[in-house]
């Protein structure tokens, strides 16, 4: 009877160990983001926007947050993951009584919003077209903008 080699089981075990270490290391490059506070005001020609939402969306972080504006256009976000965001100002949805929080998770929010208003120029009402950007840092930051064409 030929003598069985112990090399094959050793190599198989070594390959499994290397694969497990590689799989574990893949997650090590990404650190969990801290959080920051953001406050500010959104106006159009120096006048409050009124009923609308400000939306922060980051594909890199995987974070989307929409916050209603107060009557003077101000807003406050207590906790938002740090990182770079595209910002849009979204009018309330008047079709079907749907609120901003009711969205289809299989599509980006920006593709689900189609309504606009005179005081929210179309380019600002979608994260696909908005030129607005904000970097959220740990601690507090301000984001105020006057929407004008």
Automatic annotation (TrEMBL):
Q: Which residue stretches, if any, does this entry annotate as coiled coil?
A: none
Q: Which residues form the signal peptide?
A: 1-27
Comp. bias regions, Polar residues: 109-119
The protein here is known as: Carboxypeptidase-like regulatory domain-containing protein
* Record key words, sorted: Carboxypeptidase, Hydrolase, Protease, Signal
* Gene Ontology MF term list: carboxypeptidase activity
Give me the ranges of the annotated region Disordered.
96-119
């Amino acid at each position: 009877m030929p003598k069985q080699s112990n090399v094959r089981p050793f190599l198989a075990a070594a390959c499994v160990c290397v694969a497990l270490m590689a799989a574990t290391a893949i997650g090590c490059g990404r650190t969990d983001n801290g959080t920051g506070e953001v406050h500010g005001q959104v106006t159009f020609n120096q006048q409050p926007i009124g009923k609308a939402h400000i939306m922060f969306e980051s594909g890199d972080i995987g974070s989307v947050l929409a916050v209603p504006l107060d009557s003077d256009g101000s807003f406050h976000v207590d906790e938002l993951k740090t990182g770079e965001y595209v910002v849009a100002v979204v009018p309330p949805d008047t079709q079907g009584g749907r609120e901003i929080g009711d969205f289809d998770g299989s599509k980006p929010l920006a593709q689900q919003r189609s309504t606009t208003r005179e005081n929210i120029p179309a380019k600002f009402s979608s994260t696909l077209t908005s030129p607005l950007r904000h970097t959220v840092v740990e601690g507090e930051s301000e984001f105020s903008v006057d929407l004008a064409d």
